[in-house]
Amino acid sequence: MEPESLRTRIAALSARMRRAPSKEALAAIIAGEVATYSLHDLLQLRASVEHDLRHVPPGYRARLQPKMMEHLFGTHHAIVAGHRKGRFDEYHGPPDGKVGEFCDLLLGIPDRDGEEEGDPRLVFLYYLIAAFTIFVCELPGHPVGTPFPGGLLVEERDGTYYCPVREKEDDVETSICPWCPAEQSTLPGDEPL
User: Fold this and answer.
1) Sign (positive/negative) of CA torsion 100, 157, 146, 68?
2) Distance separating alpha carbons of residues 8 and 26, to the nearest angstrom
3) Residue from 130, 154, 179 nearest 63 by CA
4) N or C: where does the chain have the smaller number of CB atoms within 10 Å of the terminal CB?
5) CA 130, CA 155: separation in Å to the nearest integer?
6) Spatial contact of 20 and 95, defined as CB atoms under 8 Å apart
7) Angle, helix 23-34 to helix 3-19, in steps of 10 degrees
8) What is the pLDDT of residues 23-52, one digit of tens each?
9) How far apart, in Å, are the Cα atoms of 191 and each of 10, 73, 86, 163, 182?
């Protein structure tokens, strides 16, 4: 897909996402776009994620990669299954007002360095899956159990999600963390005196 065509497609979808009156409607908008991707595209996205993890220490990668793949394929399956049913009526209420800010991130995808980020079309698919997770399901962008260096994990306690890097990734321009519903977990050394 040509960058200008992708830019137009992202702009149109972002405008629709911003106007979604409910999580159910937002889910249908995202699912309609995700359904245009093939299984081959999803496998290419998997290969891209695996490629991005090549510099991660092997022991950590062995714990992180399966969790990422489970999340990627599981969420994709939920999106496609809802699209095939033609409904997402299990999601209620209005979407988080930050959807518009997230759409601003989407609009920048065609302008990123393709070699560093990978195929912009697949980057868009990754962010659509993240948008579904965060804004429709109200789940953390990194699922419960995702490991981080130092043995820290994304956790759920009493219905609240906690992430050890939630507030540590704000300086990463392309991070999904600013929209994640998880709260910052207390890291060793962060405890008040």
Assistant:
1) negative
2) 19
3) 154
4) C
5) 18
6) yes
7) 160
8) 999 999 999 999 999 999 999 999 999 998
9) 42, 36, 48, 15, 19
What is the C-alpha to C-alpha distance for residues 117 and 120, in angstroms, rounded to an integer?
7
The single-letter code of the amino acid at 159 is G
DSSP 8-state assignment for residue 134: I
pLDDT in tens, 135-188: 999 999 999 999 988 888 999 999 999 998 887 766 677 889 899 999 998 755
Distance between CA atoms of residues 17 and 31, nearest Å: 11
How many Å apart are CA 182 and CA 16, to the nearest integer?
26
What b-and-e string marks burial along 112-146, b requiring 16 or more CB atoms within 10 Å of the CB?
eeeeeebebbbbbbbbbbbbbbbbbeebbbbbbeb
Half-sphere exposure of 42 (CA within 13 A, CB side): 19
In the chain, what are the domain boundaries? 3-138, 140-193
Are 180 and 143 in contact by the 8 Å Cβ rule? The answer is no
3-state secondary structure of 28: helix
How much is the pTM? 0.89
Structure tokens at 120: 């912009």
User: Beta strands 183-184 and 160-163: pairing type?
Assistant: parallel
Helix (H, G, I), strand (E, B) or coil at 183: strand
**Which amino acid is residue 149, in one-letter code?**
P
Six-digit token string for 69: 């793949």
